[in-house]
Amino acid sequence: MLRGGIPVGKLFGISIRLNYSWFIIFAVVTWSLTSSYFSNWGLATSISAGVLTSLLFFGSILAHELMHSLVAQASGIPVKSIVLFIFGGVSQITEEPKEPKVEFRIALAGPLTSFILGGIFWAIWFVLADTVAVVKVVAFWLGWINLILGAFNLIPGFPLDGGRVLRAILWWRSRNLRQATKIASNIGRGIGYLFIAGGIWLIFSGFWLNGLWFAFIGWFLGNAATSSYRQLALQQVLKEHLTSEIMSRDYRMVPSDTTIEKLVNEYILPSGRHCLVVADSHMLGLVSLENIKMVPRHQWASYTVKEAMTPFEKLKWVSPNEDLSSVLNILTEQGINQLPVIDGGNIVGIVTRDHLLAFFNMRDKLGI
Question: Dihedral angle at the C-alpha atoms of 212, 213, 215, 218, nearest 10 degrees?
Fold first, then answer.
């Protein structure tokens, strides 16, 4: 999912972040409103109205995502953060719902919020019909755009909200989450292709900017549908297997006084290993390619692995009986590529992100 971004605060304990692409779409929406919708007013008024309307628009998107998150939290599902980005917003919910009815409620919460906001803004427009022109026009546009936002999200293609509603219904009927996700994701890809085709038609009709935007949305939907299904399939396969089944027992140990230069030339380059155990009489830590890259090249001859390694007490580790889905979650949350496997205080293996993906891909190719 989307990582990084700028934290701007918390709501109900949920971190709110702005992905860097959000600033692009904020500028585009503001410019579009200022130069067209509000162009009949003076420059200062049109710019002010454009900025205010954009802020309220993205506030509406935040409210949409916040309702998804609050319903998820009320259902016992942790929510890591809400991220606003170039295509709107996404709630980073940490796990799949346990029941179809929970998925159904979470999915509908967002569009219903958008429809309610649309009605509120149009009520403001109606009440102010003969008064303040700027407020009236802003309220009308926000009412219209929120209704469109709610309707668009109800398109029945996963991972849109409508696709999640469809998945919940299919899941309820079949009692098979993976099969329901596959069907909803295939529909999502099909809708993505339709958007791309519509975008191409608009481009050749002379509406190149709208066409590019439609095609870009279609590409995003298609990719999101594919990756969402693959992520679910990956998690379902991995949670049925243990770390001991795939961990590498052929790990290499290096003395703590080994220089980085010797480590690279005699251990890493000949073997292609990305991670090694640092040990003297007992395990001291792990040294990885990421650790090595932190050391300036001109210091490799004098810098030792003990100085570069991640000490054992700071390491995340797993037991041989940890399910592989939990291992993947730890790797993802920590932003690391490998974990030591510890049993009885001793290292018994190494498990890496590559091990997990190779295991899944082989089973996927064999259809098991």
Answer: 170
> What span, in angstroms and rounded, lies between the C-alpha atoms of 169 and 100?
7
How do residues 60-103 score in pLDDT, each as one tens digit?
Answer: 999 999 999 999 999 999 898 999 988 888 888 878 889 999 99
CB 195 within 8 A of CB 221: yes
Residues sharing a CB contact under 8 Å with residue 289, sequence separation 6 or more, in sequence order: 268, 274, 275
223-238: per-residue pLDDT in tens?
Answer: 999 999 988 888 888 9
Q: Are strands 14-18 and 79-85 parallel, antiparallel or unpaired?
A: parallel
Q: Most distant CA pair in the chain: distance in Å?
A: 84
Burial of 368 (0-12, 13-18, 19+ CB in 10 A): exposed
CATH class of the region 243-366: alpha beta
pTM, rounded to two decimals: 0.79
Per the rule left: phi > 0, alpha: psi between -120 and 50, beta: everything else, 147 is: alpha
User: What pLDDT sits at residue 156?
Assistant: 93
Q: Which positions are catalytic?
A: 65
Residues 6+ apart with CB under 8 A from 339: 315, 316, 317, 318, 327, 330, 331, 350, 351, 352
